[in-house]
Amino acid sequence: MVGGAEAPSNNAVDAGGPAIVALGGGHGLAATLRAARQYARSITGIVSVGDDGGSSGRLRAEFGVAPPGDLRRCLTALADGETLLARSLEHRFVDGALTGHPIGNLLLIGLAFAADDLQTAVDEVGRLVGAAGRVFPASEVPVTLIADSDQGTLAGQVTIERATGIGNLRFDPSNTRSPADAITAVVDADQIIIGPGSLFTSVLACALMPDIRSALAKTTAQRVFVANVANEKGDARGFGLREHVEALIDHGLDVDVVLANHETGGAQPDIPGLPPIVTADLAAADRWSHDPVKLGAVLGRLFHQNR
After folding, report:
1. What are 172-198's pLDDT values in tens digits?
2. For residues 193-229, b (16+ Cβ closer than 10 Å) or e, as one string?
3. Domain count along the chain
């Protein structure tokens, strides 16, 4: 189920702001999209599709579809929260055969089968919830993540997240294509935000898709890597800020600036041989995730200082 559809209307708030593309997955990408709403002229979210756990993994295994969970989170982040449907996307069933499934996941899969096209389903949900931008899967088909580790070669997002010593991330199939409109958005963007999120299973799982990596090399946009507020519990366990940035470089991804929470970046953050690092107070009250308001303010300043 691939292809495209007419894009929903974009109601981002700043008509004079930049065209933003955000890459990644999970809660980190959702926070970035909420941040971008504060200063963007247009917003595009491109979402990793290597998830094989939870509700997304169950639906993927049963129906052979791209995992919908991170697509749903991004639509929620961009939605007009006043509508009943927007408020319902994250509602999870707590008993019966549908236990653990959010309404948004089931809606996306149902519409994808009805239209025989996942992108049409994503665009339709975006239209229904008044999304302030457009969301794309990073790949037109589901992919399996493969990586080297301390335990040898591993396959699957959940397995990789539980391992240590991860490197050399790749995909099966290796030559999958990304939606053409998503690639156009990357090439034409004014600012591209990579992360935050699980380094290998969200951030690199999106940015390393062949078409996306090629577009990142061609774009003239400012490329910002947003580091995690705190060290990861999962696939990059033990990685500090330097190791995160070096992993991007090792996988062939160049960024122009690294944005880190001031407690992560330290008082003298610049690291010889790596991109410049900007630090700011970005943490939410939980001290683990990003505050979208703080993040949006700093990302907006970075863009305008770069012009």
Report:
1. 999 999 999 999 999 999 999 999 999
2. bbbbbbbbbbbbbbbbbebbbebbeebebbbbbbbbb
3. 1
